[in-house]
Amino acid sequence: MPSCVELTIENIQEIEDPYNAFVNSVRNTETLRKYKNQLHVFLKLIPGKIYEDVLGKTPENDTLEHLSTMFVELADKDSKTVYNIIATYIKEDRKKVEQKLLRPNSFSNHIKSIRKLLDANAIAISWKSLHQLYPRGSVSKDRAYTRDELQKMINTSPDLVDKVIVALFSSAGFRLESWDYFIWKDVIFFKNDDDTFKGGALLVYHGDPESYWTHITPEACNLLQEYRELWKSQIGVYPNPKDPLLKTTKTPVVRRLKGFGVKRRVDRLARRIGMRNGLVDGQSRYDVPLDHGFRKYFNTMLRRAKVDYLDKEDMMGHTTGLEKHYERYNEEDFERFSEYEKAIPFRTISDTERVKLENVNLRREKTELQKTQEKLEHALVKIDELWADKQRMENSTYTYD
Prior knowledge:
Layout: H1 18-24, H2 29-45, H3 48-55, H4 64-77, H5 79-98, H6 104-107, H7 109-120, H8 127-131, H9 147-156, H10 160-172, E1 187-191, E2 197-204, E3 212-216, H11 218-235, H12 259-272, H13 292-304, H14 309-315, H15 337-341, H16 344-347, H17 351-400
Helix pairs in contact: 1-7, 2-4, 2-7, 4-5, 9-10, 10-11, 10-13
């Protein structure tokens, strides 16, 4: 029997410093960048006298690393003071909302970095009480992209990478940071009997506890297949299963095109079709969020197709209580694909692809009709045979009598 690890005062040590604990708790690089900026703004506002009164010392410099460590130390020694500091910050920031300098729905983003730092260092604060100080949220006026706008993005860009981005983003509805995870192994293609694409499955956040499966359209499958051929022409070989799904074009070696790079490409596409040419007076933001507009489109189209609500939520990565099973390799393993199929006509962007899809559906319906007709003809033959057998039996009995 293996011996138990002995816990002593000497071998119980802090695993990492407060700042690195914070950094390691944020999985996405773009989110971490924003959190660092927001947290630094907050920490630099705290007067040195508070540290002097509680800790008997003041910060030696104003770097984020040092201030993070000082703030955690302050919270560990006097959580009530830290609670009051955060509450005061919330009240002051709330004034910006009242002056319409900050949107109510964006307010919480200013506090998330503070909570992340304290949570990562096991500092207990009554966040429920602090949340009551938040301004009341407003109904979002953001809208989804329209199919016409997505079509213009694809048609006006000569770059296949852009087309793949638009098709995948809109057909699968994942979040921007998902691009930092995708590898070729995450895509599973489904095919019809004639070898055309029926659709596909896409694993979001592979290797993460929050990973989930969603689906993609035949249109996205076709573009991915084109991109795979382009990859071979550029690199000399097809991508292997562990290669990033999209690669940058700036270097000859394979390097991932991350979420930040994807967002820049989408911004250029939006500007090209006239969706990002300057805010009008009184407008603080554009009506379609660059990346979240795709997710809204996904949600809208699945609702229009009357996809089952829990299946829709599951395909968006929301917690639903539905079974999650990740060892999936075949179409029959994906019980929610039949629901997703309802929305494929709504989600297909290109008119050409929509015609192809209609033709595939017509051929499928024709095949099903032929099968039904064959079954009916077979049943009629069987009925005739049974009727003939009955007649023979009756005739045979009559003759015997």
